[in-house]
């Protein structure tokens, strides 16, 4: 797939270098043992969406993305853009939240700014992408209100892949924010 990303489902990264596809597959297999990854897979199975190990694939990406969810092809992890196991596991969790949303919302339209904004808000919040430690590692040291600002920033970046209209992205994020930020399904609370 060479880094081509379907509608707004990519996780961006600034890392250069990384791993081979074969090494990426080994890291994916290790990531599949993570409790949060296991939980997401179990929840999808409960909804009737089967998630086999073949659902996950390491690939080489030409764009600076960590990975993406393809509704027709599963989760792709960009091995060449990732260096650490934690990064691979984090991509799996984030993209599994997209896959879960695809499973539970039968009319999810990835071309809709509102649907994509909602999916990205949920994935960034529930995956822990905006945990304060991750933000510090990105060089962002503000504590007050960091999570919501981080989520909005990351949603804008991710949506920028498919929607060049910044005003439209912002409007979509604001329109769905309260509903989607507070939708923590399948978790009892944000983790």
Order of secondary-structure elements: EHHEEEHHHHH
Total discrete domains? 1
Query: What fraction strand?
Result: 5-15%
Please tell me how large the radius of gyration is.
Answer: 15 Å
Structural class category: alpha+beta
- Shape summary: globular
Q: Helical segment tally?
A: 7
- How many individual β-strands? 4
Roughly what is the average pLDDT, rounded to an integer? 84
Main beta sheet, described? 4 strands, mixed
Chain oligomer state: single chain
What percentage of residues falls in helices of 4 or more residues?
Answer: 40-55%
Spatial strand arrangement across the major sheet: 1-3-4-2
- Can you tell me the residue ranges where pLDDT is under 50 for at least 5 consecutive residues? 1-8
N-C termini distance: 32 Å
Describe the structure in brief.
With 191 residues, the protein is an alpha+beta fold. Helices cover 49% and strands 9% of the residues. Belongs to the peptidase M76 family.
């Amino acid at each position: 797939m060479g880094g081509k990303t379907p509608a707004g489902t990519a996780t961006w990264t600034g890392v250069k270098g990384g791993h081979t596809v074969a090494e990426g597959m080994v890291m994916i297999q290790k990531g599949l043992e993570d409790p949060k990854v296991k939980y997401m897979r179990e929840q999808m199975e409960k909804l009737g969406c089967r998630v086999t190990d073949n659902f996950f694939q390491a690939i080489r990406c030409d764009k600076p993305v960590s990975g993406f969810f393809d509704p027709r092809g599963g989760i792709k992890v960009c091995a060449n853009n990732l260096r650490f196991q934690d990064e691979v596991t984090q991509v799996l969790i984030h993209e599994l939240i997209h896959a879960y949303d695809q499973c539970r919302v039968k009319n999810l339209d990835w071309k809709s700014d509102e649907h994509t904004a909602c999916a990205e808000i949920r994935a960034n919040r529930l995956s822990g992408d905006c945990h304060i430690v991750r933000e510090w590692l990105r060089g962002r040291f503000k504590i007050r209100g960091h999570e919501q600002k981080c989520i909005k920033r990351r949603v804008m970046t991710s949506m920028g892949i498919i929607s060049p209209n910044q005003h439209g992205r912002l409007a979509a994020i604001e329109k769905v924010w309260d509903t989607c930020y507070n939708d923590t399904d399948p978790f009892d609370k944000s983790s």
